[in-house]
Amino acid sequence: MADTPDNTRQQIRRTIDAVWRMESAKLIATLARMLHDVGLAEELAQDALVTALEQWPRSGVPDNPGAWLMTTAKHRAIDRLRRHQLQQRKHEELGHEIELHQQLHEEDILDALDDPIGDDMLRLVFTACHPVLSPEARVALTLRLLGGLATDEIARAFLVPEPTIAQRIVRAKRTLAEADVPYEVPRGEELVERLSAVLAVVYLIFNEGYSATAGEHWLRPSLCEDALRLGRVLAELLPQQAEVHGLVALMEIQASRTRARIGPAGEPILLLEQDRARWDRLLIGRGLAALERAERLGARGLYTLQAAIAACHARALRPEDTDWARIAGLYGELARLTGSPIVELNRAVALGMLFGPAAGLELVDALADEPRLARYHLLPSVRGDLLFKLGRMEEARSEFERAAALTRNERERALLLERAAGCRMDSR
């Protein structure tokens, strides 16, 4: 297949990108268990990706591309162990695996190295959230390792410059290696201390799946599924931690809308326009049960408050049944807890629904000079919606166009440009 047409090569490249998004976390987690070095694990996983980029355009995409990457990455890990003199401790820990290679066929070795992926990924989360790292570095590194996110995507999630995130990730991997951090789930008080960073990581991974930062698709369901699975494991591990159940509740309820959030061509459908009959009632039931457990266990924290807001939408069978007064109150409580301008922006939406668009616009305008929202596309998007409702079409059009220029998600950009075009037609 040396003369593979350009369009076929491009299709294969897109396939490889998609497979990497879905499988990179599993690759890195498994390699990290083998090598006890997350930096080296990511390097070898990237090597497997490069090999796929070189071979698949010639040989074609394998029937099971994820398994192909895993096998290739494990072979590279074994080769690395043979070629290099590792620290004596690592030789002792991994020596039995090398001995197995002398006795078994290669496929037997690869099977012997397998552990449940979920356990590997949970260990990877807690390793990346070790207290030797700053809170910001913990979240950035775990998003990189488990979410398969590019540096610029993580930067947008943090609302900080891309070079800042790149430096955090490099320093984090170096720090973990120098501190010889064990690859394990901590126990007792140490586990509880590291929980807040872990929950932040899990939720940011979920959010990237729920509303993709960039690319051709608005949703990346595999990331939502990974985050939900990790959240459920944490809930079993820490049944008395209210915020763990709060996070699970929030993710379950938000995930319940997945089928209703995109149209036949993959276009986004906004919350108030969704067919609520398509919401997954099973997930809503699970989410409401988790929320009840969270509220029963203690004071409402960051995730429990957000879950309570999501529950208001879930309980409303029609958009007009939504309890906007309760939602506005919950956002106020959340704003006092977090001081987040994004929470204030969401509160502005709720106030606009409760008291009219002028009330919402007043709060949005108060956020105009907030540095953390300078390149946040939802600020002009919300402002455009409120201006549209007030009949100020030219201003609304300008805001929708500005929001479209700021987003890197193609589906979301198309929606915003469509709304801008609608302002032109309504102004005639």
Protein described:
The protein is mostly helical and 428 residues long. Among the domains are: 1-115, no CATH class; 328-364, no CATH class; 375-428. The chain has 21 helices and 2 strands. The chain has helices spanning 6-35, 38-59, 65-83, 88-103, 106-112, 117-128, 135-147, 151-158, 162-179, 188-193, 195-210, 221-237, 242-255, 281-297, 302-315, 324-338, 341-355, 357-366, 378-389, 393-406, 410-426; strands at 214-215, 408-409. It has a two-stranded parallel sheet with strand order 1-2. Helix 1 packs across helix 3 and helix 14 crosses helix 15. It comes from Agrilutibacter niabensis. Residues 194-294 form the DUF6596 domain. Residues 26-85 form the RNA polymerase sigma-70 region domain. This is RNA polymerase sigma factor (Sigma-70 family). Residues 126-176 form the RNA polymerase sigma factor 70 region 4 type domain.
Briefly say what this structure is.
The protein has 428 residues and is mainly α. It has helices spanning 6-35, 38-59, 65-83, 88-103, 106-112, 117-128, 135-147, 151-158, 162-179, 188-193, 195-210, 221-237, 242-255, 281-297, 302-315, 324-338, 341-355, 357-366, 378-389, 393-406, 410-426, and strands at 214-215, 408-409. The chain has a two-stranded parallel sheet.
